[in-house]
Specification:
heterodimer; A: mainly alpha; Four Helix Bundle (Hemerythrin (Met), subunit A); 7 helices; globular; B: mainly alpha; Helix Hairpins; 4 helices; 0% strand
């Protein structure tokens, strides 16, 4: 009965993603994007990735979207004219043609391909027995310790950089 | 309704295959690319980029499940950390641009054109 959950969540993700790029008021776009994040979080739960699902809601739907809404309200961004009324139609069509190429390429890649790869030790039963979050925590502090520490440096640089960039001269 | 195991109805009662997640992820990524191409508002372009990052995250988690590996979920964790840093810096740049140009339309930002 996974399909009963997958299909509505996938539809919700696609519909809200389409709204993000079609709506004209940036606030509505941001709220549609929150919908996409929640749908993806549901899909992660379906994939037995509970930690990623919760972090998706906390970081994306929480922190990042609040930042977006804050900046939208701070800047008083106006509505933009819809794309089909724009002057630079040749360039727009060129871009959309490239997107069609990309979609065709992705379709060929997915359609003509059988999943290779060596299966890892983390089967569904094992993950359920130990716990998804426990496993991720253990890996983060053993195998992935150096990248994990570098993440903290990246975040520190981001904090300093954002303050320097947004400061009033 | 016919019995399970024949035709589309039979396929619909099983578990969701990896390819379904890959197709959904590809569709989300394509929507993100279209957003970057057709929108001129820097904030919306930024949201479309977030959409593409999320599409790739979905691929990582799906492969992680279907290949019995934990690495995909760890990578998603790092992608989220980098995305948070990227959003903070990008929005700071947009604020700085708005201070100088009074606009977030990317067509108005042409200082390097000479």
């Amino acid at each position: 009965m996974e399909w009963l959950l997958f299909v509505p969540l996938a539809m919700l993700a696609l519909a809200t993603a389409a709204l993000v790029i079609l709506l004209r008021n940036p606030i509505y776009c941001a709220l549609a994007l929150v919908g996409t994040f929640f749908a993806l979080s549901g899909l992660y739960l379906l994939l037995q990735a509970e930690f990623v699902a919760v972090v998706q809601v906390i970081i994306y739907a929480g922190a990042i979207m609040v930042l977006f809404l804050f900046v939208i309200m701070l800047l008083d961004v106006g509505h933009e004219p819809p794309p089909w009324l724009r002057q630079d139609r040749p360039r727009l069509l060129l871009g959309l043609g490239l997107v069609v190429l990309l979609v065709l390429e992705l379709a060929v890649a997915i359609g003509s391909w059988i999943a290779p790869g060596i299966r890892g030790p983390y089967t569904s039963d094992y993950v359920n027995a130990v716990g998804n979050t426990q496993l991720i925590g253990r890996l983060l502090f053993t195998e992935f310790l150096i990248p994990f520490e570098i993440t903290s440096i990246i975040l520190l640089i981001a904090i300093v950089g954002a303050m320097v960039l947004a400061r009033r001269q | 309704m016919r019995g399970a195991g024949c035709g589309v109805r039979g396929a619909m009662t099983g578990t969701v295959p990896l390819s379904a997640y890959l197709i959904l992820s590809a569709a989300l990524f394509a929507i993100g690319v279209i957003g970057v191409v057709i929108r001129r508002n820097a904030l919306i372009i930024f949201m479309a980029i977030e959409l593409m990052l999320n599409a790739v995250n979905l691929t990582f988690v799906a492969f992680s499940k279907f290949l019995g590996s934990m690495d995909g979920q760890i990578i998603v964790f790092f992608v989220m950390a980098v995305a948070a840093a990227e959003v903070a810096l990008g929005l700071a740049i947009i604020i700085a641009l708005y201070r100088n140009k009074e606009s977030v339309n990317v067509d108005d930002i042409n200082l390097l054109k000479g």
